[in-house]
Design a protein that fits this description.
With 163 residues, the protein is mostly helical. The protein is built from 7 helices and no strands.
Length: 163
């Protein structure tokens, strides 16, 4: 039993370190407003900036010129496929950069979720004990929450119930 808890703690620590490393890498992409696509999309903006016509771009992509308009429209609407966007980027001598940038930090999201679960579970216990006239003195709520998270909330269970 003890070895099982030790193994889980080691996995949990490794997962936390991985989250922190990923948070550091993703921090370079914030604020995301800097990376928003131009109104007509990146393909059109870069093609126009290069002075490349639709016909010239079509030739570089090995497609018919009307396909360029459809491709640019699909990017503008958000319907473009990644593999198509990658091909267009290569034809423009660009590199496609693809990332999911969390609105907060990954570590912060995990902590917030663990805290929410701990507060919910501790509230249930407190309610049951109150009904059974077995209330405990309040003490430090924060210390109880942290202890509950440490002893009962596991990373793998954080997202089970979907709320």
């Amino acid at each position: 039993m003890w070895l099982g808890k030790l193994g889980y703690a080691m996995k949990n620590d490794a997962r936390q370190r991985a989250r922190e490393r990923l948070d550091e890498r993703l921090a370079l992409l914030k604020p995301v407003e800097r990376l928003r696509a131009p109104p007509k999309g990146w393909i059109r903006a870069i093609r126009d900036s290069l002075g490349m016509s639709g016909v010239q771009f079509a030739r570089r992509l090995s497609v018919q010129p009307p396909s360029v308009a459809a491709l640019e429209a699909s990017e503008e609407s958000g319907a473009i496929q990644l593999k198509t966007l990658r091909r267009a980027a290569e034809a423009l001598d660009c590199t496609l950069v693809y990332a999911l940038v969390p609105n907060t930090s990954l570590e912060g999201a995990v902590r917030t979720r663990a805290r929410k679960i701990a507060l919910r579970d501790l509230e249930r216990v407190a309610h049951t004990m109150k009904l059974e006239a077995q209330e405990t003195p309040d003490g430090s709520t924060e210390a109880r929450v942290e202890a509950y998270i440490r002893d009962h909330v596991k990373d793998r269970d954080l997202w089970d119930d979907g709320d």
